[in-house]
Amino acid sequence: MISKYVVTAVDNTVNFSFHRVVAFAKMRLQGVAPGEKISSITLVAPGTKLAGSCTANLLNGSVNYAPADDSAAETLTLAMNGREASGEDLVWFSVMPADLSGKKLTVEVVTETNIYRKEIDFTNKTLKFEAARVSEFIISGLTPVKRDVYKLMTRTSELKFGDKIVIGRNNFSGETRLMSKNKFSTSLEPRWYASTDELVVVDESLQIMDLSSDTQIITLKEGYDRTTFSMETAEGYLNAGVNTEDELMMDVQSDVTKAASWTISCDGGIARIYSADKTTRALSGSSSTSYFNLTTSPGNVYIYYCSMGGSSAPLTALPTPTGLSATASGKTVTVAWNPVDGAASYDVTCGTEVKQGVLEATVEFEMAEYAVQYNVSVIANPADPETNTSSLAATTTVSTEADPNAGQVANTALFDFATMAASPEKPDSPDGVMTEDGCLMILTRGSWQSEGLGVFLGSGKTISIEGQNGKQITQIVMTPGTGKDIKIGSWSTDLYEGIYDESSYTWKQGEGPARYVEFETSAASTIARIEVTYE
Predict the structure, then answer these.
(1) In what order do the strands lie in the sheet with 75-84?
(2) Model-level pTM?
(3) End-to-end alpha carbon distance in the chain
(4) Which pLDDT band, with edges at 50, 70 and 90, does 338 fall under?
(5) pLDDT score of 314
(6) C-alpha–C-alpha distance, residues 52 and 39, integer Å
(7) Which residues of 169-206 are buried (b: 16+ CB within 10 A; e: fewer)?
(8) Alpha-carbon distance 398 to 377, whole Å?
């Protein structure tokens, strides 16, 4: 048998044409801060269908527009995938054909830190999105609306009244639970938030739009002090009750005066939330229970807060130091006070002299003047600046004693060794030479220099000027012999060391006059004259 296919041609023609079935828009955004990363752009036009789909029938050449359901048709969202804003951003997109003339259009630009919104009223204005055509328009004057950004709390001082917080706990599997809204009206349920521990990284930020609608958001209200708060939720104020297992379960209380107060502390990013009324109980979120309990084991509890620009409670000032006293001995002033609990150091002022960071409860000042009254103050600085501020100043006054040499007349005497050395009537040695009034004496192991140059002192030799009959020396000026020099290596006195100026060969009293001053040479020296001022 032989078989074969028989093919018969049949005339059949399909006519179709392609149409541009969507509208195109060229939108220019002005006002988004340069550098911000744009997540999305949303256009909302009430009473207009912007979102949907278009299909073409190739057989009959028709176009079928299928808008989204009624609740979503008015909204068109463009995913921008973190595009960095320039401040003048051009955005192309396609849209369902629509006529916005006489209507309103709201444009919302979402970045990682802000939401920008602008509403445009097209009353008496025209804007049409027409199929196969490009509509070009500018959106300017975008107004930023700050997003709620939640950050990990690492210090209690970061919290302020009015801030919003969410509470989480990292469990043993590395998953983080966030507290959810009331489930049974007697406790607050934790829910699994993510299978990662990213939320416990110090630098991590949460944004409110990322939180599920059942997340329990708490607003911090005023409490007893800076670290004690009342916690307000949408359902009421958080309270603490004890169940049969002696665990504190959180419920809500509409009356803030009857609700619990909560103390928040933080160490290395791990927070502890205590019932201020039951200080041995703390929020733990134990993984062995279904709820966040207040138990004796705090566990790893984390607080993420959103700053709302509120104010902090004033820190408690340290007590003003008590027992302040200031006494003077000569020009030395001694200040003492009672130690202050909670103080790390003290700032003490006497007149214009200030000593900061004093660690002990006493300090001395060396004042410049005799018989002067000085104002004295002491301020205590806190060991914990997140809890306390510095104290108010304790104050008193003190007067330095009168100058013991006040009223004495300054006298000047001159030992003219050059003239003496040239005189045939000079004594055998300059040792023991005195002034005519017997008020000053020279003691030295030096000798007369030939040619009338003065007194010669070899290296390591000494010369002393001593006051007699109660006289005290205030200044000594030496003059070298002609062509010679005076080299003083050291000097000493009976009480106050004083100051020696090598360039002018001058010694001056320090804190007081001296009964005697002894000089020792460091090299051969010749002294022609010594002028002494004394009292």
Answers:
(1) 75-84, 37-44, 104-111, 114-121, 143-146
(2) 0.39
(3) 157
(4) very high
(5) 56
(6) 21
(7) bbbeeebbbbbbbbeeeebbbbeebeeeeebbeeeeeb
(8) 11
